[in-house]
Amino acid sequence: MTGRRRFLMDTGALGIGLAAGAGQPAGAETPAAGASPRGTAAALPPVTLVSIRHTGGGTETLGIKFDDGIFDVALASGLLAQPAPLTLEQLLREGSWFQVDALVASTRASNLQQALVPESSITYGRLFTNPGKIVGIGLNYRKHAQELKLPLPKVPVLFNKFNNSLAAHNGTIRLPSRAIAVKFDYETELLVVMGRHARDVAESEALNYVAGYCTSNDFSARDLQFELAGGQWMIGKTLDSFAPIGPYFVSAARVGDPNSLKLETHVNGEVRQSSNTSDMVFNVPQLIAYISRHFALEPGDIIFTGTPEGVIFGKPPDQQVWLKAGDQVTSTIEKLGTLKFSLA
């Protein structure tokens, strides 16, 4: 049976609930005590989502990754005249997974085969285009602090990036002129995506506020970050396209423990970083608890959780060979997939 035919006929193959309004995949685990209620983004079932960039208008809309291909939510919604969130950010803010669930069921019932497309045929869009907050965490891996010969921070070190820095999987970062910066560096990081309003939450409850996770790279210009007028972290971190994320958003229910995930960076095929999120100074619940004591986190807010050892900036000065146009960078995190981008 073909992939599309199986998608349309085999209700067990998808691994998500298909009854209208179902907030839990068939056969999935019962939510833990204290988990967020149905109707919030943090209650997403085990699911992997993408953003599809469409030719012509360049719109970026929601897709669901299945073994058989990518389910185009916007296409199915339009053809069936059935409401559904058209972007990941809309889904996170509205908590409207039940509409997606119902749309998949209607697609099956209508035998709408064109709603499922091969993943190889899509152009990946930005998973996030307008988050309310982009929070970065500095110096959050023990071995990274060691390579920089710096003491471990006593509290999380926060900084920010802006929406202009958001970029998609398989994209290109166009480096600024040499008059602006030359010391470009990779930073593979676990990205935390919030699914509920979080204000002054306890560490023990913090993961209940998470919708999911992504692979990301906090790309940096070290000369701007540390040398310009004594150091300009914001400028060094937030040039255009300096925050590639993707290719997938993976729900928290599918990932499980975020504090024990392997991550790696390759540059032109060479391993540069190889570590585990277990080396974080402040783990994911600790970060959420700390941040939410100072300001509220909202659905769709994202947190770059820091990078491990192996960055170019951590090498002795005579061994620092900075990234340049033509380099190919990949960031891989266990369970989340491999983010790829090139430099120009």
Question: Short summary of the structure?
Answer:
With 344 residues, the protein is α+β, with helices and mostly antiparallel strands. Helix content is 19%, strand content 27%. The N terminus is likely disordered.
How many DSSP helices? 9
Instruction: Identify the CATH class of the largest domain.
Output: Alpha Beta
Quote the beta fraction: 25-35%
Q: How many DSSP E strands?
A: 19
- Describe the sheet with the most strands: 12 strands, mixed
The appropriate CATH architecture of the largest domain is Alpha-Beta Complex
Helix content: 10-25%
What's the CATH H-level superfamily name of the largest domain?
Fumarylacetoacetase-like, C-terminal domain
Succession of helices and strands:
HEEEHHHEEEHEEEEEEEHHEHEEHEEE
The number of domains is 2
Structural class: alpha+beta
SSE order and pairing:
Blueprint (H helix, E strand, L loop, with lengths): L2 H7 L38 E6 L6 E7 L2 E4 H8 L7 H7 L2 H14 L5 E2 L5 E2 L9 E5 L3 H6 L9 E4 L5 E2 L3 E3 L10 E2 L2 E7 L15 E8 L2 E2 H5 L6 H5 L5 E9 H4 L6 E6 L2 E7 L7 H11 L7 E3 L23 E6 L3 E7 L1
Parallel strand pairs: 6-17, 8-14, 9-19
Antiparallel strand pairs: 1-2, 1-5, 1-14, 2-3, 3-4, 6-7, 10-13, 11-12, 11-17, 12-14, 15-16, 15-18, 18-19
Helix pairs in contact: 2-4
Tell me what you see in this structure.
The longest helix is centred in the N-terminal third of the chain and has 14 residues, at 97-110. The protein folds into two domains: 3-124, SH3 type barrels; 134-343, Fumarylacetoacetase-like, C-terminal domain (Fumarylacetoacetate hydrolase, domain 2, Alpha-Beta Complex), CATH 3.90.850.10. By secondary structure, it is of the alpha+beta class. A hairpin with a 2-residue loop joins strand 15 and strand 16. The protein has helices at 3-9, 73-80, 88-94, 97-110, 142-147, 222-226, 233-237, 252-255, 284-294, and strands spanning 48-53, 60-66, 69-72, 116-117, 123-124, 134-138, 157-160, 166-167, 171-173, 184-185, 188-194, 210-217, 220-221, 243-251, 262-267, 270-276, 302-304, 328-333, 337-343. It is built from nine helices and 19 strands.
